[in-house]
Amino acid sequence: MSGPKNSFPKQNAIERMENAFWKALDQKPFSEITVDNILVRAEVSRTTFYYHYCNLEQLAENSIVHECMRKDMVDLIHEIVNSDTLDDIPAAKPEVLNRRFKRLELIVGPNGTLRFLELMKKCFMTIARAELGLGDKSPDMETEAALEFVVGGVVSMFEEWPRLFISWPASFPGDLFSHATSMMSKVFRELKSSLKNGSLASFWRGYGREQELNLGS
C-alpha cells in the first residue's frame, strides 16, 4: 500500500522547504517565521527538516545562496554585463527580470535581515569576480574597492526598488528596470575594460564624468 501523496510530486524535500521559506518571507518578517510554518507549507516532517538543517537560519542561508547562484541567474547576469543592449536578451525583458528578481527583492526588503543582505552581496561578489577573471579574491585593494562599489550599486538597486516602484511614472515596469539594469551593465563593462587595460584610473574618471552629466541634466 503506497503512502499518502503530497502536493509537490516533482519536488524533493529540499526544494519544497526552500520554496516554503520564500513564500513565508514574502508574507512576514524572518523573525516571525517558525519551523512549523515551513513544515506545513512544504508538507515535510520535523525529522526531515532537522535531517537537512540545524535550524531555520541554515535553511534561509542555503535558500539565498541557491537562489543567487542558480545557473540561469549566473548566465543571465553574464549576458547582461557583456551586452551593449538588453533588447537582444530575451531573458532580460522587464517582465522576466521582475519575476526572476522577485526573491532578491525579498532579501533586501523589510522582511529580510542584515545577514541576508551580506550573504546576497557575497554571492554577487563571487559572480563578479568570475566575470572579471579574478578567481577567489581581488589582486589588490584598489580592485577590491572598485568591485565593492559596483556590487554595492547592484544591491542598492534592489534596496531602493520599492521606493522607485512607487515614485516612477505610469510607464513602469519597462522603463525603470531596463534603465537600472542597463546602467549597472554599463558600469560593470567599464570596470572590466579598465582592469583589462591595467589601470582603474579610467574607470573612476568615466564614473565621475557620468555623475557630472547626470547632475547637469
Descriptors:
single chain, 217 residues, mainly alpha, Arc Repressor Mutant, subunit A, 2 domains, 12 helices, 0% strand, elongated, disordered N terminus
The fraction of residues in strands falls at: under 5%
Q: What is the overall shape?
A: elongated
Supply the helix-strand structural class.
mainly alpha
The beta-strand count equals 0
Q: In DSSP terms, counting alpha (H) and pi (I) runs of 4 or more, how many helices? A: 12
Distance between the termini: 72 Å
| Unreliable stretches | 1-5, 209-217
How many structural domains are formed by the residues? 2
Major sheet: none
User: What value does the average pLDDT take?
Assistant: 77
Q: How helical, in percent, are the residues?
A: 55-70%
